[in-house]
């Protein structure tokens, strides 16, 4: 079914795609499968391993011991996220899923729901050949100077703005201040990044965290 161009109720052309949450999915799956479905999120304290259908966030990949089939609903939400390591993170999720189904004796499967089947990573996972994906990812990172062809650090905490402003005149790095407690630093290599971080000024009451090569930015 094609999503309408305008809302039939209010006439607005700005339409949001509403998705059911984990709890709603659990209810619908339980009704459709006519069996108990367990919900697993980061807040889950105990997982009943005797249940044979689970639904949840990424936490389910770490909390469930084994599975015959793992299904990723809307993997595009991760695959198309505006993060430079997004395909790497998706690959990590699939590896965790492979661990779950690896011991299955019932035709183990990993299913990914997507609207971008031509994505190099998905093609590589489906065919078992990641050469084309590796080549395209290397080219992209090299052009954009992302690690390992450049250095990147995320700075957060009290005093971040002052800390980054002290490097504004440095020829070693580029800085970007998101707000008073979040910012980024880019450098040509790890040594330049290290030198800039070592020489930057910190205020007496600052509480700064520095995450080099952050996975989610």
Automatic annotation (TrEMBL):
A biological process term (GO) from this entry: DNA recombination
Keyword annotations: ATP-binding, DNA-binding, Nucleotide-binding
Species lineage: unclassified sequences, metagenomes, ecological metagenomes
Coiled coil: none
A molecular function (GO) term: 3'-5' DNA helicase activity
Name the record gives this protein: Unannotated protein
Entry annotated with the keyword Magnesium: no
């Amino acid at each position: 079914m094609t999503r309408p161009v305008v809302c039939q109720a209010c006439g607005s052309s700005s339409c949001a795609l509403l998705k059911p949450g984990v709890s709603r999915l659990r209810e619908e799956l339980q009704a459709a499968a006519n069996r108990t479905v367990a919900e697993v999120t980061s807040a889950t304290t105990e997982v009943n391993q005797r249940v044979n259908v689970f639904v949840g966030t990424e936490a389910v990949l770490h909390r469930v011991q084994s599975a015959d089939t793992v299904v990723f609903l809307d993997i595009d939400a991760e695959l198309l996220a505006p993060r430079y390591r997004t395909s790497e993170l998706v690959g990590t999720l699939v590896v965790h899923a492979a661990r779950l189904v690896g011991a299955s004796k019932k035709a183990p499967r990993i299913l990914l729901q997507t609207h971008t089947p031509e994505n190099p990573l998905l093609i590589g996972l489906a065919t078992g050949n990641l050469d084309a994906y590796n080549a395209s990812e290397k080219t992209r990172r090299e052009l954009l100077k992302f690690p390992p062809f450049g250095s990147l650090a995320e700075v957060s905490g009290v005093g971040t703005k002052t800390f980054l402003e002290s490097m504004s005149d440095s020829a070693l790095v580029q800085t970007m201040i998101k707000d008073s407690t979040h910012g980024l630093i880019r450098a040509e290599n790890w040594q330049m990044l290290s030198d800039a971080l070592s020489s930057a000024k910190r205020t007496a009451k600052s509480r700064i965290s520095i995450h080099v090569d952050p996975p989610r930015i």
